[in-house]
Structures are given as C-alpha cells and as structure tokens.
Amino acid sequence: MSACEPRGSDPDGSKPVHCTVVVDGPKRFAETDVITARVRFRCGSPGAQPLTLKLRLEKETGEDKWGNSLWSAVSTKTFTLKGKDSVAPELKYAEKAITISCREGVFRTVVDWSRTSRGDKEGDNLISGSVRDPCKKLLDE
After folding, report:
1. Spatial contact of 2 and 45, defined as CB atoms under 8 Å apart
2. What is the pLDDT of residue 95?
3. Source organism's superkingdom (predicted)?
4. 3-state DSSP call for residue 135?
C-alpha cells in the first residue's frame, strides 16, 4: 500500500474509509461547443457504501437586495457509487461530469456529496469559483 492512497492504517477493517471529493469550475470541453462541470473523487479501499454525488451546473441570474449573487441550476445529475466504483487508481481521481451547450453567462459547479462507510456518514457542499463565458476564446484569432 502506498502512503499516498487514501486508505489509512486499518488492519482489522473497522474504521470508515476516507473519501476525497474535489469540484472543478465549469469549462469548455476540448474544442467542442459544450460547457462541462466536473467532480473528481477517490475513496480508500474497499470503497464507500455508497458515495453519492449530486452535481449541479449553475448560472448566475442576478443579485438579491444585498448584492449577493442569485444562481439557478441549468443541469443536474446524481451519481451513486458503491464499493470499488468509488475507488480510484493510486495517485489518481475518478470523475463524473455533466454538460450543457455553450452559452454566455457566469457559471459555477456545485456538488453536494455524502459517503457512508461502516456505519459512519460524512459529507459536504462544495462550490467552485465562478467562470464568465467559459466557451469564449481568450484571444481572437
């Protein structure tokens, strides 16, 4: 076992597995006309039972009376992974993504995640930074 794997030292298998979840800001997928919102994850072996990822791509729709941004989901999908499906190769992450066609605006990626392992539950809400017009080319050709 490598020290970089999220497994920890648990010879009797009684401790819950550790999961790491990372949210990436929306971006244009390769040279397509698609915006991609991505979540990366990895759990220690034998994996979560389950790892649930509720992924949303949100667009800014305005501001409230205090100047805080208002957001609306433009695409959502829930992924439920169990056991080895939540484990990634050493020093790597597995990933899930959602896409929409390119359009102008300010976007962010949001993931609500939870994992259950050996009777223990853990979770969090992660929000990426906002990205304006992810499909727009930085330099005119």
Report:
1. no
2. 96
3. Bacteria
4. coil
Exposed, middle or buried by CB within 10 Å (0-12, 13-18, 19+), for 30?
exposed
Identity at 4, one-letter amino acid code: C
- What count of residues does the chain have? 141
pTM of the model: 0.85
In DSSP terms, 128 is beta-bridged to none
**Which two tokens mark 10?**
């648990």
Query: What radius of gyration do the chain's Cα atoms show?
Result: 18
Q: Bridge-partner residues for 27, per DSSP?
A: 36
Strand segments (E) across the chain: 19-28, 34-43, 48-63, 69-83, 94-101, 106-117, 120-127, 131-132
Among 113, 110, 82, 79, which Cα is nearest to 96's? 79
Which residue is it, tokens 């009777």?
119
How far apart (Å, rounded) are the C-alpha atoms in residues 109 and 130? Answer: 8
**Structural domains of the chain sorted by starting position, each given as residue range(s) with its CATH number in brackets:** 19-125 (2.60.40)
**How is residue 54 written in tokens?**
């509720």
